[in-house]
Write a structure and sequence with these properties.
FMN binding, 17 strands, 13% strand, Glutaredoxin, Rossmann fold, alpha/beta, 4 iron, 4 sulfur cluster binding, Arc Repressor Mutant, subunit A, five-stranded mixed beta sheet, NADH-UbQ_OxRdtase_51kDa_CS
Amino acid sequence: MDNGQACTNGLSSTACDVSAVPGEEIAAICKAFGNDKHRMLDILRTVQDRYHCISPSTMDRVATETGLSRIQVEGVASFYSFLSLSPKGRITIRLCDDIVDRYAGLAEVTAAFEQVLGIRVGETSPDRAFSLEYTPCIGMCDQAPAAMINDVVLTRLTADTARAAAEALKAGLTPEHLVSERFSDLTPHERANRMVDNNVRHAGEVLLGPVPEDAGLNKAAAMMPAQIVTAIEDSGLRGCGGAGFTTGRKWRFAAGERAERRFILCNADEGEPGTFKDRVLLSERPHLLIEGMTIAARAVGASEGILYLRGEYVYLRELVEQVLEERRRRGLLGKDILGVRGFDFDIRLQLGAGAYICGEEGALISSCEGLPGEPKTRPPFPVNRGYLGHPTVVNNVETFCHAARILDRGAGWFHAMGTEGSHGTKLFSICGDCLNPGIYELPYGHSVREILEMAGGQDAAAVQVGGPSGAMIARDSFHRKLTFDDLATGGAIIVFNGERNILEIVEYYMSFFVHESCGYCTPCRVGNVFLQKAIGKFRKGLANPEDIEYLKELSGTIIETSRCGLGMTSPNPILTTLKNFPLVYSALTKPNKDGIRDTFDIQSAIDGARKIAKRRSYIFDRDFTQ
């Protein structure tokens, strides 16, 4: 998440576009956000979008206007991958580098862009017209290869379409022109759907079938807050982001806290590679999402909400803002909602800036507070002291949508679907080596084999359930059920056929976790680098049988000592493939000739880890220990 080197004193005053910008313009940007330090991410995103760089002088002025130190501002600016301390092109092309995109032809797409633009990935053209770079999964795995061009998304790229797009941009056309010649005449909903297909393959009874308008909110307005919480509890609804915590219980905890302010936060930062269900709900059911957040506010006594939209979904920003404004006009947001005195609630949109870790609720709260997206120490939990120290409910898009439907149709209706302990329906994001990638809304309890048959993935040799932090299973496990008690998943199901290299996939996923670590704790930041290097050793045929035990032991250490969920799950690509594909590893090992293992130099290893993770170790680095 480090974005290169800062502009140095050795560069000319025009090295960053913003260096030559009068401080008054930066001050005006800060003022637009109330000079509020908690809106730091909004301030810096605006600077980045307008001037394509965040220079030292800009950080100084932002610090002055918001009452912070320069180092605090730089800490935010250097954390998020969509912010840059070095000059970027007026058009930044971010090619999705997910493993699914690689298998779908990313190399050919990359070559086409490089050839036409005359730059390589990681470079900016001399005239600063273009920057070309890779970015992790952007939530378009069902239509890969994909790319972000400024705020525009292109999907199903080929070498030919990539070349045509690059030539059009080089000829002076805007990224929006690549979507439609009459882009400005389209509605926000039309723009979003011109860029990205929702690929709803199976619409279920709860979310993607017919949904009456605000039926749940109308019923909630006539109920006491405690009755709403009880209905959610009785429904059996559990968080749909992967952890599966009981939703009603979370709401009850927040409602029970003594506090003058409470907050509802929607986590729309689904960054898990292979997951794109919330993207579809944001496009297909934006009103249902806001309805669910408003019901939660009624239940817990919150008057303020934040919808945290991942930076990769910036193409949906106008659509979400239009929905929020429409609901304000209709009396469904704001003061005395639906005429109920004291039922006050409104929502602001917070756009992320490229940080997978912000999908973790503590890191998301930090990001909303204008801080680097680092997880918070727990306890206290968000329901006790969350955003700005106040009780905070954090649920994801799918969970809030379910809550609105439960208030409409009743707890018993929802509870009757699915299986014991896993009630209701689930949105599955299916992609990879299958004929019909897309979104499937199904009751809990289907087997992996049944899902594969629906999606046309009968040739699957391996399936990644729950994304990289989940489990990679083999054919002998395709009978297992998609439930919280068997194969739990936030929704991602990635299909791989027999032609794919398991260790190539594992190595990619480990590189993803290395890149996305927030850098706070050594076990996650450095340990994952060691794991990645070890997998590289296997791929080169240099591993010995003892290396298998090394992988297990190091994975266990990372899981036990990491601060947040990223480190606790990052070794899963290795652990689950060791368990389910043991022959892949054993076939690539050979004993040492002398039976002696190499010695281990912690400083040498950390030096390599530092370069890859772009973070220093607060425990082992000489700079910090001397």
